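Lecture 7 notes: from sequence to structure.

We start with a single chain of 139 residues. Read the sequence below before looking at the structure.
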Amino acid sequence: MNPKLLKILIAILVAITITGVVAFVLVLNVFGDKKDEPLSLDKMVEYSFTTEEMNTDLQDGSFVQIQFQFMTDSEKAKKEIEQRSFQIKNEFIKQSVSLTEADFKSGLTELESNLKTKMNELMTEGKIIDVYIINKIIQ
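Now the structure, written as C-alpha cells:
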C-alpha cells in the first residue's frame, strides 16, 4: 500500500474518532436525561400519592391516626407506589410498634426517612423522592 495513502487514511480515521467522541459527550451532557434537576411544583403534585388515613396503637397504649404523601420521580413510580399501598401500611405498622406518643410529637422526620428508605428498597419503576406526614392525630 502507498505510504502517502496510508497516512491520509489514518488521519481520516483519527478525525472521525475525535468527531464521534465529541458528539457522544455532547449528546450525554446537553441532550441527555435531566434526572438531577429538581422537579417543578406541578410535576411534584402530578407525581405524588396520598395514602388513606391509617390507625394503629403505640407502645405506650396511645393510638395514632396518620396520613402520608409520597413524592415520586415519575408517573410510573406513582402508579407503582399506589399499588404498594398495602406495603406502606405494613411498614408503618412495623415501625410504629416500638414508638410512643412522645416519639410522634418530636421524631417524625426519622419515621418519614425510614418509610422512604424501606419503600425505595421495594420500588422497581422509579423512586420515592420524599415522604411527608400530612395528617396526624394522637389519642
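The helical segments are 3-29, 41-46, 75-83, 85-96, 101-106, 108-122. Keep this in mind for problem set 3.
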